[in-house]
Design a protein that fits this description.
Mean pLDDT: 84
Distance between the termini: 19 Å
Number of domains: 1
Order of helices and strands: HHHHHHHH
Structural class: mainly alpha
Number of strands: 0
């Protein structure tokens, strides 16, 4: 039961911090997106950009649910890994930060390019298409550099490390079974 609490708390805290960051940064601090539009951008990974925008609050709700599902899955991976590698809870801040860097790379260079938002409206149909998308993804900086907001990429790295990875690691530590 401890493991389940670690997963749920880690996913909830990381998901909440990350989505609030997105609402503020992609809203009033840069592109002026509404919370609905931010959530629709998450849903575009399933639906594609045009269908997500057309879905109004239905697609935004899918985006919110998807966002917290992804955060919870991220927490589950870390919590289960921490069961076998005590160092992940002994040095939670360090390994949470490193895990956040791994999540940044995974989300921006693997998940987003393979999603419907990153690949022309549908998931990759074949191994060759997946390889081609990954090759393209690693050939350019993701997210795309915008000279008007030079802090955007460092901010995205910060959110994955400090607002996602570290809270997940601390939740894993808090609910880790006591080992002697």
């Amino acid at each position: 039961m401890q493991i389940l609490w670690g997963i749920l708390l880690g996913g909830l805290i990381a998901g909440a911090l990350d989505i609030v960051y997105a609402f503020v940064v992609y809203g009033p601090l840069s592109y002026g997106l509404t919370p609905q539009e931010v959530l629709q951008s998450v849903a575009s990974g399933w639906l594609g950009r045009d269908a997500s925008r057309a879905g109004n609050w239905d697609s935004a709700t899918l985006g919110l649910a998807s966002h917290f599902l992804i955060a919870t899955l991220m927490a589950a991976v870390y919590v289960f890994a921490a069961q076998g590698f005590r160092v992940l809870t002994d040095k939670a801040i360090l390994w949470g930060f490193i895990y956040g860097l791994i999540l940044y790379v995974a989300m921006n260079y693997v998940v987003a390019p393979l999603s419907a938002a990153g690949g022309g409206g549908q998931f990759a149909a074949s191994f060759g298409e997946i390889v081609a998308r990954l090759r393209e993804s690693f050939s350019d900086i993701r997210p795309v550099w915008d000279a008007r907001y030079p802090w955007m990429i460092p901010g995205t790295i910060l959110t994955h490390t400090v607002l996602v990875g570290i809270p997940i690691a601390l939740a894993a530590k808090r609910f880790a079974p006591h080992r002697d």
